[in-house]
Amino acid sequence: MKHPQSLGDTPSDEFRKQLHELADWVADFRENIESLPVAPDEKPGAIRAQLPAQAPEERESFEEILNDVNRVIVPGMVHWSHPMFLAYFGWTTTAPAILGEIITAPLNVNAMTWRTSPAATELETLMIDWIRQWVHLPQRFGGVVYDTASVGVMHALAVAREETAPFVRKRGLVGAGAPVFRIYASEQAHSSAEKAAIALGLGEENVQRVPTDSLFRMDASALREMIACDVRDGFKPLAAIATVGTTSTASVDPIPEIAGICREFRMWLHIDGAYGAGFAILPEYKSMAAGWSDADSIVVNPHKSLFVPLDFSVLYVRDLEKLRRVFTLVPEYLRGDTVEAEKNYMDYGIQLGRRFRALKAWIIFRSFGREGIVARLREHIRLANIFADWIRKDNRFELAAPGSLGIVCFRFVSGDENEFDKLNSEIVEQINASGRAYLTQTKLRGQTVMRIGIGNVLTTEDHLRKAWEIIQETADALSSKTKSQLPNPKQVPVNKNADAVGREWLDF
Ligand SMILES: Cc1ncc(COP(=O)(O)O)c(C=O)c1O
Q1: Which of 191, 249, 275 to mutate to test the pocket of ligand 1 (most atoms within 8 A of CB)?
Q2: Could you please report the per-residue DSSP string of 47-98?
Q3: pLDDT at 98
Q4: What pLDDT score does 497 carry?
Q5: pLDDT band for position 91 (50/70/90)?
Q6: What is the mean pLDDT of residues 65-78?
């Protein structure tokens, strides 16, 4: 049904009606999410093919739009909130988080300066401080909320670069006579290190990958040797990135040793705690935070492990003023709105316009309480441990890495050894295509392994057991096929940059 022409937007009585409908839609979606396939088995382009190629000339009703959401969008989604979604870090949204997103929308804030958004700015500062206390960082660490950890590490390395070669901000690398910098991260660290080096003009190849030990942790003695060798060859070691909760196995690098090496060579220490750092809120994991106070910067992603939905990532810097000095720049038209600022977050990064992310975090943290977050994380660790036990007890499978936090990497190892890579990849492909569960595959030491991440608040032990049964069934069915019947593994879209630096894991 077409509406009479208007200048756009919706009359308030109609809007109220739509909101009520939407409230039911949201509640129904969440209540019934389990009945949906976790993922569609569509070919690329299938969603677009169901929608008009041109934007509508005349307005359409909310009813028509919502119908299309139900008809095309919802079935075309991977449902990251589904209890059987066990990929990546589990990932989650929660009921309070959805309320938080809803309240944020009408407020329509741009948190660029304090004046343009006093409550958003001050709440952001408060949330940064709550999380700082939870992860046991000293008070001198200040922070800023970005969308992602990738953006966080880029900003951190920009500060490191300016510390070592002052005037790069003003004159650029060549103008400032900067040396060829080197950055070190373990071979298990995230590819955002290379992305940051690309963006900062430091060069992807200057991110040096340090070998890991048998537990996938950075080998600190190899780090020292690589740095010493680079110094002899005329490179300038700039920074080490130590990871707390690596992408594939959630391994934790030996931070105190790495911090010592950074001190010795006067290098910046950035800790990528995107996934793992949030777990320091658990009293029994407090010791994991040893050495963090020696870092120059650390990233924590509440959107990975503290129940805040994407996006919400905090970069802490030991001396936040250094970050401000690299990025502050006030154009004339903003001057009036910056004068009485307590803090203008636009000064702490390349972004000017900024969402009001702190509101949803505040609502979630208050709704859970610290105790609630701790209880949830403990439950996720418990579930991951149960799953690891099931793997240990079934001799057709083996653990591919020690279980860590909410992550378990495992491998089907029954039958012809030469087929294991193909088989493990195909098990994941088939399960994901079935819509019954969703897992990740990755590579460890050259071998394809399966991986689950527990992080979803809707995932219970029953769901996990069901997933385990699906994995066993699928593995049985596929392994009983002859070698020639097994399909070649699908080409998994591996980040070309990651390939170029010789790493094996999938980029997520
Ligand atoms: C250890 C680690 N660091 C950084 C990132 C990048 O996170 P973001 O998506 O917030 O940029 C990831 C992504 O999964 C990760 O696993």
Answers
A1: 275
A2: TGGGS-SS--SS---HHHHHHHIIIIIGGGS--TTSTTB-STT-----HHHH
A3: 96
A4: 35
A5: confident
A6: 96
Per the CB < 8 A criterion, the answer to whether 347 and 325 are in contact is no
Nearest-angstrom CA–CA distance, 214 and 399: 13
Q: Is the CB of 440 under 6 A from ligand 1?
A: no
Q: Which two tokens stand for residue 61?
A: 């009703």
Q: For residue range 242-274, what is the model confidence (pLDDT) as tens digits?
A: 999 999 999 999 999 999 999 999 999 999 999
How many degrees, rounded to 5, is the angle at CA 252 between CA 413 and CA 262?
Answer: 135
Res. 491: pLDDT tops 70: no
Total length of the chain:
508
Element housing 240 (H / E): strand 236-243
Pocket-testing residue among 301, 303, 508, ligand 1, by greatest number of atoms within 8 A of Cβ:
301
> What's the pLDDT at 266?
97
Alpha-carbon torsion angle 403, 189, 243, 168, nearest 10: -170
| Main-chain phi, psi angles of 242, to 5 degrees | -100, 140
Q: Smallest Cα–Cα separation from 301: which of 320, 275, 269?
A: 275
Look at residues 105, 144, 98, 142 and name the one whose alpha carbon lies nearest to residue 121.
144
pLDDT of residue 176: 86
Residues 6+ apart with CB under 8 A from 401: 215, 216, 248, 249, 251, 409, 444, 449
| CA gap 214, 211 in Å, rounded | 10
Q: Average pLDDT over the chain, rounded to whole?
A: 92
What spacing in Å lies between the alpha carbon of 334 and ligand 1's midpoint?
33
Residue 473 alpha carbon to ligand 1 centre in Å: 32
Beta-bridged to residue 317, according to DSSP, are 142, 297
Ligand 1 atom 16, closest CA: 247
Report the alpha-carbon distance of residue 188 to residue 200 in Å, rounded.
22
Cα of 114 vs centre of ligand 1, distance in Å, is 29
Q: What's the pLDDT score for residue 52?
A: 95
User: Is any atom of ligand 1 closer than 6 Å to the C-beta of 507?
Assistant: no
| pTM greater than 0.90 (yes/no) | yes
Mean pLDDT of 82-105: 93
Q: Which residues, listed in sequence order, are joined to residue 438 by a DSSP beta bridge? A: 85
Task: Report yes or no: 405 and 381 within 8 Å, Cβ to Cβ.
Answer: yes
Say if CB 103 and CB 117 are below 8 A apart. Answer: no
pLDDT in tens, 347-372: 999 999 999 999 999 999 999 999 99
Local structure of 417: helix, strand or coil: helix
What number of other Cβ atoms are within 10 A of residue 197's Cβ?
A: 25
